[in-house]
Write a structure and sequence with these properties.
The protein is mainly β and about 110 residues long. The chain is about 0% helix and about 60% strand.
């Protein structure tokens, strides 16, 4: 099954995919600042989150960032919007500094 890779630049796009495909989303993140990517909306019936991992960048310096990688599996045909927010969860929605959204058109 094909793997589709999405990045920050894909925010706002409509992406066509097929049932069985894997989607991997890579977003820059620096958790030492307290800001982390979190899911805002998704439809687990159409596209299911399989994993979410943080990978440190090459720099090992204090406060160096890395990438949050989220892997999704297209389960059934339909349209779904994945919406994420970069925020400090303990500060609530007022702390959101960025959003990422992509519409997935899953076909048989």
């Amino acid at each position: 099954m094909p793997t589709i890779t999405l990045m920050r630049a894909d925010s706002g796009k409509v992406v066509e995919t097929r049932v069985g495909d894997t989607l991997v989303l890579h977003l820059d993140e620096n958790p030492t600042t307290g800001y982390r990517w979190a899911m805002e909306t998704r439809d687990e019936e159409v596209v299911a989150l399989q994993s979410a991992v943080y990978v440190h960048g090459r720099s090992t310096g204090v406060a160096s960032g890395g990438q949050r990688s989220l892997t999704f599996h297209a389960k059934k045909a339909g349209s779904v919007t994945l919406q994420l927010k970069l925020w400090r969860a303990w500060e609530g929605d007022a702390s959101i500094v960025e959003r990422f959204g992509v519409t997935l058109q899953v076909q048989e």
